[in-house]
Amino acid sequence: MKRVYGAIFMAAVLTLALASAGCAELPPEETPFWSGGGSSGDGGQEGPSASPTPTYVTPATPYPTERAIAEVAQPTYRTPPESERLNNEYLEIYNKTARYDYTKEAFVYNLTAPPLLVAFTVDPDTITRTKTVTSQYGSQKTQTVKFTNIDSNVWFEITIRDQGTGAVVAQDGFARLYSSETQKEMVVRTAGVYLVEITGNKVHVDLLMRAKSL
């Protein structure tokens, strides 16, 4: 009998030991840290960004309604220091290189010393197709030819409005209603407070705005 009770006691101890082992917590799994904070899909890289320099303009709401005009921030103008005005006939008030994909931005500028000169260069997206052709002369050799054309969805537009009335003072762009010239200039010759709207799709644009130095 003593042997039986001893066996039962040992079995109970073994059962408790196994139950305790099953309830033990596993050590937490370590999560790898990727430098740059990005996911493995994009490599953690961020695209280039550019901002206007120096800041002479005030960000604003594009012009869809009268309410939008009423809610835009009041225009600001910083008189440039003498070091910037000296020997400079024109002051650079906005200089930006940006990508536009159905993007729209706007800002307000108080033109106190006309003219306002706006120059932009458009680099449109293109589509390359290949076609197999056979020469109709000589050995009638067959070859593959590449054709590169501007993407049909490309367009760009700059609109300059009177901030108070919304009237369009100047407007130009690339494709759609405008020519396919990649370099253009616009001029506003009258002083005033202007809302400048920039929009486009599938284009990289270099935009430079200058005004007469005070």
Q: What can you tell me about this protein's structure?
A:
- With 214 residues, this protein is mainly beta.
- It has a domain at 58-125 and 152-212: Sandwich (Jelly Rolls).
- Helix content is 15%, strand content 43%.
- The protein has 3 helices and 9 strands, in the order H-E-H-H-E-E-E-E-E-E-E-E.
- The chain has helices spanning 2-23, 66-71, 82-85, and strands at 58-59, 90-111, 116-124, 126-134, 142-150, 155-162, 168-174, 183-188, 192-212.
- Strands 1, 2, 3, 6, 7, 8 and 9 form a 7-stranded antiparallel beta sheet that branches. A two-stranded antiparallel sheet has the order 4-5.
- Strand 4 (126-134) and strand 5 form a beta hairpin.
- The radius of gyration is 33 Å and the shape is elongated.
- 17% of the residues are buried.
In summary, what is this structure?
The chain is mainly β.
Secondary structure category: mainly beta
Please give the count of helices.
3
Which range best describes the helical content: under 10%, 10-25%, 25-40%, 40-55%, 55-70% or over 70%?
Answer: 10-25%
What is the CATH level 1 assignment of the domain at 58-125 and 152-212?
Answer: Mainly Beta
Provide the β-strand percentage band: 35-45%
Number of strands: 9
Unreliable spans are 18-49, 65-87
Please report the distance between the alpha carbons of the first and last residues: 113 Å
Largest sheet: 7 strands, antiparallel
Q: Output mean pLDDT.
A: 74
* SSE pattern, N- to C-terminal: HEHHEEEEEEEE
Q: What sort of overall outline do the alpha carbons produce when their principal axes are compared?
A: elongated
Measured on Cα atoms, how large is the radius of gyration? 33 Å
**Named CATH topology of the domain at 58-125 and 152-212:** Jelly Rolls
CATH architectural designation of the domain at 58-125 and 152-212: Sandwich
